[in-house]
Amino acid sequence: MTQNDFYDLIRKRRSIRAFDIDRKVPDDTIIRILEAGRLAPTASNRQPVKFHLVQKRKILEKLHNCYSRNWFHNAPAILVLTGRREDAWVRSYDRYNSLEMDASIMMDHMILAAESEGVSTCWIIAFEPDIVKDVLELKDNEIPLVMTPLGYFPDGYEKREMPERKTLDELVTRY
Q: I need a surface site. Which of 15, 30, 44, 97 has the fewest CB within 10 A?
């Protein structure tokens, strides 16, 4: 991948909210996506996040109850990241816990890997965590953090244009 390919990948990636329920993501593709998350940096290399890949129809149907959008129900796979606060790095000065940051970095790596594989994704944090805990039979100290569907968008579906973003001048302060 060239430098331009990487920036093109970032520019073209969109949250997809339509999936072809009958088109499964091949196992070798899933493994490459998961590997991208495994290789992501985490604070002090603690790697406090677990990946839960849900592909069985019976479990997917139960998991659908945590998020009410219809398009979510058509994804052939859902990836859920969980973590335990006690496994994450904690900054000594103010007790900041890196769990959510680590999960975000890992998920971002996987979402970009999915895009490079032609697999559609959508960040989801607006779900009911207690339902996720119940469906995945998580321990009390395991926190559902973020999830994404993994799948292919249906034929004829067009990706939306990039939403307007702030300019670098609005975002950057130089010293």
A: 44
CA angle 36, 40, 41 (to 5 degrees): 170
How many angstroms separate the CA atoms of 12 and 1, rounded? 15
Domain layout of the chain by residue ranges: 3-154
Other beta carbons less than 10 A from residue 172's beta carbon? 8
* Residue-by-residue pLDDT tens, the chain, 175 positions: 788 899 999 999 999 999 999 999 999 999 999 999 999 999 999 999 999 999 999 999 999 999 999 999 999 999 999 999 999 999 999 999 999 999 999 999 999 999 999 999 999 999 999 999 999 999 999 999 999 999 998 887 777 788 899 999 999 999 9
Alpha carbon distance 41, 159 (integer Å): 30
The domain 3-154 having CATH identifier 3.40.1190.10: the answer here is no
What is the DSSP annotation of 1-65? --HHHHHHHHHH--B-----TT-PPPHHHHHHHHHHHHTS--GGG---EEEEEE--HHHHHHHGG
Measured distance CA(51)–CA(81) in Å, rounded: 5
CA 146 – CA 81 distance, rounded (Å)? 5
CA-to-CA distance for 121 and 18, rounded, in angstroms?
Answer: 10
